[in-house]
Structures are given as C-alpha cells and as structure tokens.
Amino acid sequence: GRGGRGGRGGGRGGGNQGDMQKEVATIVEHIQKLQWQPAIVFAFSRKECEQYANTVGRMAHINFNTEEEKAAVEEVFNSAIQCLGEEDRALPPILKMLPMLQNGIGVHHSGLLPILKEVIEILFQEGLIKVLFATETFAMGLNMPARTVVFTAMRKWDGEQNRFMHSGEYIQMSGRAGRRGKDDRGLCIMMIGDDMDEATVKSICQGKPSPLISSFRLSYYTMLNMLRRLEGGDTSMEYVIRHSFQQFQQERQLPQLEAQLKEVEAEMEQLGAEGEAVIADYQKLRKEVGVFKDRIQSV
C-alpha cells in the first residue's frame, strides 16, 4: 500500500484531541474528493472511534451515499432492529446510528450492541458504508477489505506501555487495503507524530511479522471436553489432534530435529571411547561410597 504523512497525533494522548478530530475529518474529505472509498479508519480506543465518527457525521458536506443507497440502509437497519424490544429501539445509541449510516459512515468496536455490529458488517460488505471507524479487532478474522486504510495513530497502549505498533500488527491492519479484483493497489495513510523518525517507520512497514505459534495444550479438561463433543460422532480425538496446528508445527520441525540428531551422533563418534573404562570405574566407586555412607548412618 502507499503511505502518506498525516497529522501530528502520534499516539494515545499524543496531541490536542480537537485538532486530531479536525485532521481526521480533513483526511475523510480528501477520501471523498479523490474517491478513495471504501476506507477503514483505525483508532486504538472505542472513545476515539466514536469521537471521530461523530465529528465527521456532523459535517453536512460529507455524504457518501445516494438517495437510493440511503433507502437501502434504512431498510436493512429497520429490519435488523425489529428483534429488539420497543424500549431498546428507542435507546440513544440506536437512534443516532441510522442518520450516520445513511451518510455512508459507520463505527465498529466491541462496545456496540451485537445486533448493531452485525448490521454494520453487512452494510460494509454490501458497499453501503464508505468510511468505517474501527478498532484493531476489526482487522482480526473478518474478511472486510477496503480500498484505503487510515491509521489515526502509530502508537498504542498494550496494557503495560504506550508503544509503537509492531510490524505484525501493522501488516494485519494495513492488509485490509486493496480489494482483490477491484483495486490495482491498496492505499495506506498514516498520521505520523513528531516522535516518529524514518527508521521507526521503516521498521514497522518493512519488518517481518511475528511467527505464528500454536497455543494448543492438551490438558485433562481439554480431553474431557473433546470426548463430550465428539461422543456419537464419526470424528475421533486422535483425528482432531493430528489435524491441529500444533501437530502441523511439530511435524514441520522433524527434518530440522533429525538433522541436529545426526550432527550430535557424528560428534559422539568423533569423541571415541578413550577413558570409558576409567569413567565406569569412577561411577562404580561413587556407588560404593554411597552404600557405605548409608550403612554408617544406619549404625
């Protein structure tokens, strides 16, 4: 993807929040002008997602959808929320969501009601949401490609420290840019702070992703759970384990381990058997000493 230099909000708390909202809105204006939609705008907190979406949603001239598309959004939205009770349908988060969605702007994070998340995912897949403000969880598992990906910050709070993104995280999120069969290339816009130099940008963008390591551990609880699930079925526990990612990784390591074993065996042969008799006598004497000590203690 192609990168661009954005504003100076280098991370969580990296600058005036009002200025950041204006800069994000300016980027969305450019996306609309240059027709770079659909776009995913990543923020690292639910609060920021809501703030950016509300700021852009209040701008009357930012409107991505035609009247026909607005009608389609309203139909899908109203149909989906029918499963909610009358009181729930009158909740402020529900009421304020529709006008924003009709303009082609959406929000996706873990704090939304499940029904709203599902509606937003459907609308985005159908091309009725043109700019989606989302947390990084949207990049995990869901097949939701876009033409453009925007990073509102390159720093994130990981529960312990406020750090720059890892290469694997950047690759996972920026990989949403570019739709197969529709776009020649994906566009990636980064809002870079003053504390981010060229070397840091290179290490994030060109670094290698973290290797995938299976966390599968076969415990008694796992075995009992598998027995309960597989009971009466055609699939055996052995089949599940053999086809696990951990088994795949272990089998993949076999050639390397076999090569290491041959190297060790070759080294052992080169050592020869000199001194083997002396070592055996020494071990025998140690055992005898141990026996005598036990006898003395028993007396």
What does this structure look like?
This is Helicase C-terminal domain-containing protein. It comes from Chlamydomonas leiostraca. Residues 26-224 form the Helicase C-terminal domain. This protein is α/β, with parallel strands linked by helices and 299 residues long. It has two domains: 17-206, Rossmann fold, CATH 3.40.50.300; 220-298, no CATH class. Helices cover 52% and strands 9% of the residues. It contains 13 helices and seven strands. The strands form two sheets. It has a five-stranded parallel sheet with strand order 2-3-1-4-7, with helices on both faces. A two-stranded antiparallel ribbon has the order 5-6. The model is unreliable at 1-14 (pLDDT under 50).
Coarse structural class: alpha/beta
N-to-C order of helices and strands: HEHHHHHEHEEEEHEHHHHH
CATH domain class name of the largest domain = Alpha Beta
Measured distance between first and last alpha carbons = 82 Å
Secondary structure tally, helices = 13
Calculate Rg over CA atoms. Answer: 30 Å
**Annotated CATH architecture of the largest domain:** 3-Layer(aba) Sandwich
Biggest beta-sheet profile:
5 strands, parallel
Anisotropy-based shape = elongated
Strand content: 5-15%
State the strand order across the main sheet.
Answer: 2-3-1-4-7
Number of domains: 2
GO molecular function: ATP binding; helicase activity; hydrolase activity
GO biological process, one term: maturation of 5.8S rRNA
Keywords: ATP-binding, Coiled coil, Helicase, Hydrolase, Nucleotide-binding
Domain Helicase C-terminal: 26-224
